[in-house]
Amino acid sequence: MNNTKLNVFPGMKAKKPQYVLVTENGSERTSNVTEEKIRDEVDDIDDNVSVYLEKCMPRVVVRHAEAYSIDYFKDRSIAVCFRVNGFLIRMWRPDVDCDMAADMMCDFFRTASLPDMTGWNCQKVYPDQEEDKETDKLIVDDQDFRYFGCADVVGALENIIEGKSQSMLYIFTKDSGGYVKICRSDRDASPEHAYKVEYVRWTEQPPVGYRGEMSDFKQLRVWLWNLIDGNLLPEAIKDWWGFNVNRYFESMVSRFLDEEKDER
To answer: Fewest CB within 10 A of the end CB: N or C in the chain?
Structure first.
C-alpha cells in the first residue's frame, strides 16, 4: 500500500486538485492523469497487478480522518484508503469489475467523490516500505508535535488536568500500535466524570476499543505512564466499555457519505 505524500505545487497548479496515478505494481507514477488514462490502466489490471489513484491533498472526511486514495487490484478487489487518527485504514471489498472500479476512480478524480461503502470491510494497513513506517505522534488541542518524549505525553495530560488544554491524542506504534484520546468533559459534567478517555489497540483481531469517563487523575496518570514507558500494554480500566473498532470506522464513513448525499 502506498502512502500519499503531501506536495506543494507552484503557480497555477496550486489552484487545481492534484492526483497521482500509480501503475505496474507500484513501479510507475505519473501526475499526468486523465479519465481516459485511468480507464486504460484499470482495463490492463492483469498486467499492472495494482492501480492506485492518489489525491495529493487528501479529502477531509471528519476530524482526524481523510481519504487519500482508491486502489484496485488484480484479484478484482478495491479499497478506499484513509488516514484515521494517524493510522492508515482502508475500506475494502472484493468482486469489483473493471468498469465499476474505473467509475469509482473517475468520480474520485473529478470531484473527490467517494463510493457507497456500505457493507465493505474495514482493515488497518500495515506499511511495508521504509518511508511509510508509522511513528508515534502527539497532538494537543489540534497542534501536532513532531519531536517528543514520555515526559511530554505526561505533561500533555497534566495540562488537561490543570485546565490549560482541552484534549490530547497520543498515537503509539509499539506491538502493532493503537491510540489514546483524553479530553476534559463538559463543564456541566459531574466531578466523577471529569475526563473522557478512548483507547484502541490494534493487536486484537478484530480490534477492540475502550471508552470511559473518570475523575481519578492519579489513576489516569499511572495508566498513561504504564502505556508509554512500560514493557507491556496496560489493560483497560475496570468499568470502561468496549466497542468494535471496525464498526466504529464503518459508521463514521457512512455518516460522512450520508451528509454528502444530503448536500447534493
So the answer is: C
Q: Which of 31-35, 135-139, 166-170, 195-199 has the lowest mean pLDDT?
A: 135-139
**Residue pair 235/245 in contact by the 8 Å Cβ criterion:** no
CA distance 45 to 104: 15
Angle 159-231-140 from CA coordinates, rounded to 5° = 20
Q: Which has the closest alpha carbon to 219: 227, 209, 207?
A: 227
Task: Quote the CA–CA distance of 71 and 134 in Å, as a whole number.
Answer: 20
CA–CA distances in Å: residue 190 to residues 56, 164, 166, 186 = 44, 19, 17, 9
**Can you tell me the distance from the alpha carbon of 104 to that of 81, in angstroms, rounded to the nearest whole number?**
13
Residue 84, CA distances (Å) to 61, 231, 248 in order: 9, 26, 11
CB 55 within 8 A of CB 71: no
125: its cell numbers: 494497513
**Cα–Cα distance between 51 and 128 in angstroms, integer?**
17
pTM over 0.85: no
The set of cell numbers assigned to 71 is 486502489
Residue 51 grid cell: 492501480
Residue 23: name the closest of 68, 59, 54, 55 by CA: 54
| pLDDT (mean) for 69-74 | 94
pLDDT, mean of residues 152-178: 84
Length of the chain: 264
Q: What is the mean pLDDT of residues 147-170?
A: 87
Burial status of residue 141 (CB atoms within 10 A of its CB: 0-12, 13-18, 19 or more): middle
Given a contact cutoff of 8 angstroms between Cβ atoms, the answer to whether 189 and 206 are in contact is no
